[in-house]
């Protein structure tokens, strides 16, 4: 009901159909620009291969919260955040999410050795890994609140998981290109990194669906992936997207096929 002379009440929550992915992507890119400028001005690195511009990881969460708040106010933001943190991984999903990325990068390491690349054994520093995981988990949550919890469902409902993964993956990659240039990466390296990013997003789309649509499942895998590449030999300097991309793409394609068959079986 509408009070006399007043504005209509805002809904307390919004459906995925109410979300605006294009506005979200544009707002993320706009919010990320100051971090890119800071990276150019300082030239500083947070970690090896990780410039100051990487702090733009907060932008997807900020963009999502802003857009939800505009449509539904504080109550809508609270509902959005509650829903994002309701579903958690269960049982065997935990080791898959935490160990999947390092296992895949171990396969890449074996391929490099088979190809004659003199890549050394990775060092295992448990303390450093724990600190990196804590830091990367926070940044993964802020990213996935936007990419997965806000943008994924309207795109997936309209065009399916694969197209949704490609669209979000390209937007995700676009946000990082300036940071990669600041880190001194050449365009060949960046092109293969984009392939890797698209494959990773395909896996995250499947994980989002299989873990109940919550942010924690995708964030755990995302954080584990970042820790794995930072822990690769020589602080990731031997990490080669020309090999990582194809390995992740094969696994992502297989995961998409299996997920599609499961969904078709559930409907039948």
UniProtKB/TrEMBL annotation:
- Assigned EC number: 3.4.-.-
Q: Which InterPro entries match?
A: Rce1/LyrA-like_dom
What transmembrane ranges does the database entry give?
21-41, 53-70, 91-111, 159-183, 189-208, 238-258
Question: A single Pfam family, by name?
Answer: Rce1-like
UniProt entry keywords in alphabetical sequence: Hydrolase, Membrane, Transmembrane, Transmembrane helix
GO terms for MF = hydrolase activity
- CAAX prenyl protease 2/Lysostaphin resistance protein A-like domain residues are 129-227
UniProt name for this protein:
CPBP family intramembrane glutamic endopeptidase
